[in-house]
Amino acid sequence: MLISLAMLAFSVVTLIDIITREEGQVKHLPKFGWVLIAILIPLLGGILWWAIGREYPERAPRAAATGYPAAPFVPKPVDTRTTEQQLADLDREIEAERLRAEIARRKRERGEA
């Protein structure tokens, strides 16, 4: 008896959740398809709905075990340069480093450093 009531409550909660979801929050099938599955196969349909059928909201990152609040999400900057631009910048950096090393070598030879 208790198992039957639990299954009925699970099926009712599942149907309410399916019906009240926005269409954009439903995955893999239209809402009508999920309602049919939840009615025709109550237990399996409900499990499938909660496992793969609904879109869950984004969760904030959890706080660490230290008890301090989690750091806010900071997106990584996107490099919009082309590959050719990146290679040219890298070549300039390499040449600048080579010139710095050459200047340091010449200073050592003259005894300035």
What structural class do you assign from the helix and strand content? mainly alpha
The average pLDDT value, as a whole number, equals: 85
Largest sheet: none
Task: Give the topology string: H per helix, E per strand.
Answer: HHHH
Q: How many DSSP-defined strands?
A: 0
InterPro entries: CLS_N
Transmembrane segments: 31-52
Main location: membrane
Subcellular location: Cell membrane
What labels describe this entry?
single chain; 113 residues; mainly alpha; 4 helices; rod-shaped; 2 domains
Outline the structure in words.
The protein folds into 2 domains: 2-53, no CATH class; 80-113. With 113 residues, it is mainly alpha-helical. It contains 4 helices and no strands. Helix 1 (2-20) packs antiparallel against helix 2 (31-40), helix 1 (2-20) packs across helix 3 and helix 2 (31-40) packs antiparallel against helix 3. The model has no long low-confidence stretch (mean pLDDT 85). The protein has helices at residues 2-20, 31-40, 42-53, 83-110.
Quick structural gist:
This protein is an all-alpha fold. It has helices at 2-20, 31-40, 42-53, 83-110.
Would you spell out the secondary-structure blueprint of this structure?
Layout (H helix, E strand, L loop, with lengths): L1 H19 L10 H10 L1 H12 L29 H28 L3
Helix pairs in contact: 1-2, 1-3, 2-3
